[in-house]
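Note to self: the last two entries modelled the partners one at a time, which told us nothing about the interface. This time every component goes in together.
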Amino acid sequence: SSLPNGTTKALTNAVLAAQTTNDAAGAPVQVINEEKKFTPDLSGYISSWGLAEAGFNYDVVAVFGSQSTGKSTLLNRLFGTSFDVMDETHRRQTTKGIWMCRGKGMNVMVMDVEGTDGRERGEDQDFERKSALFSLASSEVLIVNIWEHQIGLYQGANMGLLKTVFEVNLGLFGNRGSEGMSQRTLLLFVIRDHVGSTPLANLAQTLQADLTKIWDSLSKPPELADRHLTDYFDLSFTGLPHKVLLPEKFEAEVAELRKRFLHRERDDYVFKPAYHKRIPADGVAHYMEGIWEQVQTNKDLDLPTQQELLAQFRCDEIATVALEQFTAQAKPLRKPIESGHVLEALGKSMRSWKNEALARFDRDASRYHQGVYHRKRGDLVVQLHATLGPLFLGQLKNLHKLALANFKREVVEGVKGDGYDFGELVRKSREKNEGEFVAGALEGLVEGTDWTYEEELDLLRQEITVIADQCRADETKKMINHIERTLKRQIAEPIELALNKAVPTMWDSVLRVFTDTLGKATATYLIKAKSFNCTEEENTASLNILRRRAWQALRAKVDEQTSDTSILAKLRSTFEDRFRYDENGVPRVWKPDDDIDAAFRKARDQTLELVPLYAKIQPVDTSLEVSLPSDGGDELLAGEGEFDFAATLVVFSESKQVDLVAKFRRDADAYYVEAKRSIVSSVSQ
Ligand code: GDP
Ligand code: MG
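The predicted structure of the combined assembly is written out below.
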């Protein structure tokens, strides 16, 4: 398992050593040194012992007792640890401060606490008190190591130690019930060099009486005055034979005692659940450090507060780890989203990363103080959502862009071919692309967020409408052009025929043709416009265009039919009809007594009457009159050029009429001269 940051080189070496010697117990660590400093390496050691992931599935035991009473020797036997043991040749204290080691093959953290020798006071007593507080706050079982011959010596060092333990315990757990702290601790008395002449039961009785005496002598706060020792402690007594004199018996009984630490199913199994301090294994190092800090600064040691502080610290750490992995998962998506890609199944990924992160957090953090855990979980969820939010928004933006682009492309492609229904094309494409946007947006939603896509959808709808309007305007123009071409074709021949018959109702015929054809064109337009979803205004504008174009087509045809050549030919043929043919349509042969002059004048004047008839578009039946608006502020008509309807009714101006009359007169005069000559020639024959 990986070691946390801040792991020192010493630890790394120790871990390597432990690994290379394949020592499952691992190396012991000096948790608190001679200077009463707490090690920065404990967390790394716990990891190296393989206990960091143990959750609540581990136990803590500490040993207490005078110096050189064989405590370390006992621990090494019971737990397979490798605490230093005093060398027989130079008797001096070996255990300084507090050491910790993992039990070999056991999920047990074993604490070897520096002993006091009772004769010296002061410094020693201070440390004794601090280490008692520290051990009680974290251990389930306190082994009290005691020589048989010390029992009954009420003034002995052990009694001072036990008094301290009880006092300290009252401070820590006295007010049981508050914050659910109902901690019990097992005091396991191990009587060393038990000779056997006094039965264990008697020794236990003596000890118990002493303990009660000590308990009663404590000055307790009034609210705890009637509390008993057994309200806080379970007591257990065992004896061990002399290690040097009876080595085999000693080893055998230690092995028997070891079983009580190993076998859960035994009645005398020492690690009862009630003793557990409920600190998750991955928080033990931080918890102990906090406890020691409080103890060192002589502050009141308030365990519920310590547990909350621990929970805050650990939940933050766990959240950071959960967040790191999550961030690493989310990060690679930022670029593609920023560069406009719509990501497939983004929501599914986001949801699963979020769930994975929360699962990682829950697994470790849920063991800590529940209030803190839930609060920190809430914070984490906020952070997760804050990371995912921009991805979702980016995705929405890209979905929007894609839908708009697809719509545009589909409509532009759609109108390229033939036989399409523009209105239907727009409706279908809009439905499809808005639908795809909504589906994509819904897929991206993450539970528990206040994310919405409605605003973006509204925007998309508006932009689609703008494009649709633009396309419809183009389509409408195309349609108008098409209708105009058809109309031009339809009016050409009837107008030509009407203008060739110079009767007073000539313009009535022309205008009737015009009105009928325009009516049909208008109907055609309206049918199509309906499927386009054109607005009233658009229809009005389009029909104005159509009417003007139709009128201009009519005018063009009139101009063509009234060009100088055409009109003069028409006048000539009318004149000829009247002057050179009689009422029956038979060609005249002039005789000398015919009144050529009168006939000529009559035919000429009648023909000249046609000039004002052609000069202005004016029907006899006034109901046939057409009226068109002249240039107005109409936007769609703006591109159609200047237009003055009244002016378009005039075919020949006054001066043009004079000009035409003069030209025609010359033609007519020629006919006159020719008629005269024909008589002269017939008389002379
Ligand atoms: P600690 O200071 O309490 O940890 O004591 P140690 O475990 O270092 O042992 C101190 C000395 O006592 C060593 O020389 C041991 O060999 C010796 N010793 C250990 N166990 C016993 C025992 O059960 N009886 C006796 N008489 N000596 C022991
Ligand atoms: Mg020792």
